[in-house]
Design brief:
The complex is a heterodimer of chains A (37) and B (489). With 37 residues, chain A is mainly alpha-helical. Chain A has one helix at 3-36. Helices cover 92% and strands 0% of the residues of chain A. Classes of the chains: A mainly alpha (37), B mainly alpha (489).
Amino acid sequence: MPASAIVMLIFGCVVLYGGLIFCLRRAIKGSKKSEGR
Amino acid sequence: MEERERWGSRAGFIMASIGAAIGLGNVWRFPYICYANGGGAFLIPYFVALITAGIPLMILEFALGRKTQAGAPSAFAQIVGKKTEWIGWLSLFAVMLIFLYYPTIMAWSVNYAVHSATLRWGTNPQNFFFNQFLQNSSGPEVLGGIRWPVLAGLAVVWIAIYLCLFKGVKAVGKVVMWTVTIPWVILVIMVVRGLTLPGALEGLKFYLTPDFSALLKPNVWLAAYGQVFFTLSLAMGTLIVYSSYLPKKSDISNNAYITSLANCGTSFFAGFAVFSTLGYLAQSMGVGVPEVVKSGIGLAFVTYPTVIQLLPFWAPFFGVLFFIMLLTLGIDSAFSQVEPFVAGFTDKWHFSKKWVLPSVCIFGFLVGVLFTTRGGFYWLDIVDYFTCTFGLCLVGFLECVTIGYIHKAHKMREYVNEVSEFRIGKWWDIMIMIVTPVILGISFVFELVKLIQHGYGGYPRWTSFVGLGVIILIIVLSFVFMKIKGKEE
């Protein structure tokens, strides 16, 4: 597999799945905070 | 006036938005557009389109709906001015074109769910799909009579859409909790099997290796933006009307990030199932990956059945499950397309949903009969191309220009930041005001010139003029609907 394809794979995974996990965690935290209030 | 409905919970809204976004656009359209535009050559414009237009426009549409608590035409009239109401109508007519052909793909899935029980496509899914199932005519000029199994499937699909929408948005939230999560489990099985096939690596190379020369091709950029609009349900009025059902103090930016990343993550993942199978098919046919399937639009109905056929156990069971999944994926997107169209009428003229909804469903079914003919496949391809490349991209362009320059992007950004978990910076203004309109505008002009000179997809040139004529017609209709007085005017 060419290096550029591996870079594309890593980029896609980090941006899409990494970003999604980060945002979901933030949303869960936000929901807990508003429930606490 | 009927009181506006509300989502049962934030999770219900997020799941419904993901449901609207995750659909056949991920499993059927993304792989075929990616394949038709050179695989890895398409991925860079696709990611650029997601970052520059997908996420910013989703934030914009969520904000528009939440702030105005109205459907697309009323939202534009309230926020930007009465004279821009037609942009909202244009988005509804663009989505109307989509919900005219989209249920046909689902009708194919209904049939394939039945055929899966006996794996009727045998060892040659390509031949089965084009010649036995669709019995394609020689071209778009020959309709060649109705394919009755497809028509029956279409009727089933429209009844399902009607029943789902009849129950209202809270029911939609509950339905999509299942229709979004189950498909992911099945997709994992397909990807694992695809990756373990001989030759899979060749397919992945084609899928992931970037081709920088493709960045100079306007059609690849327009295809990427069109795909992002289609898959995220942008420029269709869907997200505006969904967010209008949100309570006034709900988050905007994080909901937009979650929805768009979940959606594009699903597309990217589905690509592995399709392209690994294409690698296998290329090896077994002794051809290159780009030559495996003759028409991109049928790609999903060639590659997925191939994987199903090659599953080591329970192939018919997984086949039925997979095509039911395609159906459930499509159904929440389909009713998310019908919903804003219905809301446009109920918001402006206060027509009862009881009458508008069945009328729209019957209209959709009747026009959809065209796509169930033996020449319908070609028309589906043509309408899909013109709607996404010109209709959605045009609405996206107009949204950016009107909100960015007339309403002022910074005002909308400040509104979003007041209620959101993530503050958005000035980058958002730049995307809305400069980057997206410039890329869309340039690609649009180049593609239009190319289209007039050469036509689309090897079809006769008159079909391109029909396609452009339909786009012009919906622009005219948008102005007409703006001019007709609403009940409160």
